[in-house]
Design goal:
Pfam families: Rer1 (PF03248)
Distance between the termini: 93 Å
Radius of gyration: 25 Å
Structural class: mainly alpha
Oligomer: single chain
Membrane topology: Multi-pass membrane protein
Subcellular location: Membrane
Main location: membrane
Helix content: 55-70%
Keywords: Membrane, Transmembrane, Transmembrane helix
Length: about 190
């Protein structure tokens, strides 16, 4: 039985610590699920810390560019339907395109929670990368910024055209409420 001992520095102790940490992390992650505003504010704080770090260090533009491309990729997944009508052979699992089609709710390819978790993780990893000089490649950052903006505009244009073509909106503002027919007879309500 090589490599397995009972003392604190053993592989068994490390595996136990990793398992405990993983359970505790998953517990807090599960507790954060019903609080989207708090989660996104925490992500905004992580993004702000990363941006301030890059601003004060005046470097790590390649890391920022890679982060921007990754976030753009996540955004496209968040805005795209799970079943893409262009990719699927229209085998019944498509978005409704006419008013007479059956209503099918919009299901994202990338759910909101995974979108949030991936973005937060990406900002944290990028922040850690700013402490290693090997990732600070000297580049002319305005070129990277212009290229990313052009890429963002072209990608969003394609996504918006896709949304218009297949008539779907990837956002909902909560539960829709119906008030019914409003009565126009005000005299009937004032009778005693």
């Amino acid at each position: 039985m090589e490599g397995v001992t009972v003392d604190g520095g053993s592989p068994v102790g490390l595996a136990r610590w990793r398992n405990d940490f993983s359970r505790r992390f998953q517990y807090y992650l599960d507790k954060s699920t019903p609080h989207p505003v708090g989660r996104w504010l925490g992500s905004l704080a992580a993004a702000t810390i990363y941006i301030l770090r890059v601003y004060y260090v005046q470097g790590f533009y390649i890391v920022s560019y890679g982060l921007g491309i990754y976030v753009l990729n996540l955004l496209i997944g968040f805005l795209s339907p799970q079943v893409d009508p262009e990719m699927e052979g229209m085998d019944g699992a498509s978005l409704p395109t006419k008013g007479s089609d059956e209503f099918k709710p919009f299901i994202r390819r990338l759910p909101e929670f995974k979108f949030w978790y991936s973005i937060t993780k990406a900002f944290c990893i990028s922040f850690v990368m700013t402490f290693f000089s090997v990732f600070d490649v000297p580049v002319f950052w305005p070129i990277l910024l212009c290229y990313w903006v052009v890429l963002f505009v072209l990608t969003m244009k394609r996504q918006i055209l896709h949304m218009i073509k297949y008539k779907y909106v990837p956002f909902s503002l909560g539960k829709q409420r119906y008030s019914g027919k409003r009565s126009t007879d005000k005299a009937g309500s004032s009778r005693d």
